Amino acid sequence: MSDRPTLKGRHASVSEPRLVRWLLVAIALAFLCVSVVLPLVSVFSEALRNGVSAYIDSITDPDAISAIKLTLLVAFIAVPFNLVFGVAAAWCVSKFEFWGKSFLSTLIDLPFSVSPVISGLIYVLLYGAHGWFGPWLQAHNVHIIFATAGIVMATTFVTFPFVARELIPLMQEQGSDEEQAALSLGASGWQTFRRVTLPNIRWSLLYGVLLCNARAMGEFGAVSVVSGHIRGLTNTMPLHVEILYNEYNFVAAFSVASLLALLALVTLAVKSFLEWRHADELAAKHKH
């Protein structure tokens, strides 16, 4: 009997008048329209301003095709690497206690605290013509800066926290009881990972890979420093958009930018799907 007034009081303290709730919702929707919807509409409207044929010509231009291919290649290399690193780092941090664990966690967060431009500059100072390893690389005809290798390295650096940071909290919450039980029953380490650990983390893993891929394709700052902006060779899609815009070729710039906008929309759709499937799976577990 004594708890009921307390619960009612708590409910009353968090409830707001209907006018306040509607006002907060209206402010949130207005903010989303101004910051998200209107920019997307303007991108596609500018891209199609001269018609569909001009849009197709812009995205099938040889330089645009080269930028698209390079962007896909960089993501194809960087994302799997970060997938392996993220799972290994999350496994170490969440399942074991070792000296330097906090230092490893700090290093994982490093790209979030360092400007991408600074990270690109670090690669130039290390592997550029006048960098620490530049003379040795030139002597052996190895090209990193102003080449695809440098773009891949810079993109990998700025994107490697995404998978790990999605997995670490989940794996810490799950603990290691199931893995220890599987090992005690005679399962090998690989069998334990494949049949116990991986099914428990698959939704967060897919979500982290999705975010990593979106960031890899849209990265600008670090790639801009190490690429050299060589048209048709080292320009990714964001860099190609910048060049077209600076040349006042707005239709072509927004046409290529619309592909990145479509990537963002697909990312949001897949993200919502993964969250929905994860919620359904949790609800099914609670039922059983």
What does this structure look like?
- The structure is a single chain.
- This protein is mainly α.
- It is built from 15 helices and no strands.
- The protein has helices spanning 3-14, 18-47, 52-59, 62-95, 101-108, 110-113, 116-127, 134-139, 148-159, 161-174, 177-184, 189-218, 221-227, 237-246, 250-287.
- Helix 3 crosses helix 15 (250-287) and helix 4 (62-95) runs parallel beside helix 10.
- It is globular, with a radius of gyration of 24 Å.
Mean pLDDT: 85
By helix and strand content, what is the structural category?
A: mainly alpha
Task: Count the E strands.
Answer: 0
**Global shape:** globular
Low confidence ranges: 1-5, 7-13
- By DSSP (H or I, 4+ residues per run), the number of helices equals 15
Described by strand count, sense and barrel closure, the largest sheet is: none
The N- to C-terminal Cα distance equals 32 Å
Order of secondary-structure elements:
HHHHHHHHHHHHHHH
Helix amount, in percent? over 70%
Beta percentage is under 5%
Computed Rg: 24 Å
